[in-house]
Amino acid sequence: MAVMLHESSLADAADRLWEELPGHRVEILNGSIVVTPPPDGPHQDTLTWLIEKFAEVGARKAGLRYVQGIGLWLPTGPDDYAVPDLSVVDDDYKDALVEKNCYAPFVFRLVVEVTSSNWTNDTATKVDVYARAGIPAYLVADRKHGEVLLYTDPADGTYPDPVRFKRGQSVPVPESVGVSLDLSVDTLLDGDD
């Protein structure tokens, strides 16, 4: 779909696309607008399952919230922001509102992306921008390649190489998140049965 944009800023263009394409996710990553179509059922099953798992281990009692689709303000450009599939954030994250329903990176403990048709954004671009934002843990359920990648402890705006998990394995949620939890790779990739 070709869209003619004559807005006064990149942020205005992103807002217009968000209005024009209901159900799509609009983000600005490294100064470029990225539009993602609505997710499929297994994608959403995975997110629901994750919410249930974090609830089971008492994440709320540990001072955390687990929320879908909230904005993460990025330091990579004046209008840059991402909308992760699921985020585990500090309980008081609402106090860190920056603008446009986006929150400061320091309240994010874990960001989760489940790949869809634009999987390269999750496995490349977002690795870079989340590291530069200082997100302590980034989990990617890479459905295209049948593996889960866990990036942790960014230094100088870069994550070390990820730990890779294959089917039949479990992914331990990093201690920095604040809860103890192991996640099934199969369920992360396929959604809850």
Keywords:
four-stranded mixed beta sheet; 4 helices; 24% helix; globular; disordered N terminus
Cα gyration radius (Å): 16 Å
Percentage beta strand: 25-35%
Mean pLDDT level: 92
Q: What is the spatial order of strands in the main beta sheet? A: 3-6-9-10-11-12
Poorly predicted runs of 5 or more residues:
1-7
Structural class: alpha+beta
Largest sheet: 6 strands, mixed
Number of H/I helices: 4
The CA-CA distance between the termini, in Å, is 35 Å
Tally the beta strands: 14
What is the 3D shape?
globular
**Helical amount among residues, as a percent range?**
10-25%
* H/E element sequence: HEEHEEEEEEEHEEEEEH
Describe this structure in words.
Helices cover 24% and strands 31% of the residues. It is α+β, with helices and mostly antiparallel strands and 193 residues long. Helix 3 links the parallel strand 9 and strand 10. The longest helix has 16 residues, at 41-56. The N and C termini lie far apart (35 Å).
